[in-house]
Amino acid sequence: MKRRIWSAIACGALMLACGLAYAAPAPLTLFGIPLKGATRAHLREALKSHGMIAKREDDSYWVDLYDPSSVLDGASEFQVGYVAATHVFADCKYTFQGSMDTQLVGKVIALVQSKYGPPSTRTGDINLGEVTATWNFPSSMSITVRRGWPDTTTYLYYIDAAEDRVMQTEVDAEKRRQLQQKARAQNQAY
Fold first, then answer.
1. What are phi and psi of 40, to 5 degrees?
2. Which CATH class is domain 29-177?
3. Where are the beta strands (DSSP E) in 7-105?
4. Where does the signal peptide begin and end (predicted)?
5. What's the first-to-final CA gap in the chain, in angstroms?
6. Residues 26-35, mean pLDDT to the nearest whole number
């Protein structure tokens, strides 16, 4: 009996040492708030309490705008998008203005990597061209760092893919509604 207990303990220790023991991944958070299912009211409160300066918080828009410069070095803009019907988090984006700084994307990737480890996928060359690094999380959540080219401005996205699709569907429906309304208003002109 003692032999089985010690064998189980040794096996468990070996699994931990080799990284084979299962540990549930931590949820994707921002300012300590799990983003999956986070409400607009809850995130607004958390952002303000951590020093984020609101530029626009208005429920009639899908996106709230903030000045993150006092919270995250190098960030010039922060946007948070919500599903209008439920006021649930869909996505957010930090903007890091690049001025011919090809290494900026590498710095932002290193920042995220210091908290979440290496990205799940990475494409591109930091020195030249487009670069994308993505960290995948459970429940359709992800973080993506992206730089286009030749503009070296870098973007850091937090995305709930499921809720982001719902928000985009709402946005597309509103655009169609506005186009139809405009066509009806101008139908006498043609």
1. -60, -45
2. alpha beta
3. 29-30, 33-34, 53-56, 63-67, 77-83, 88-96
4. 1-23
5. 91
6. 92
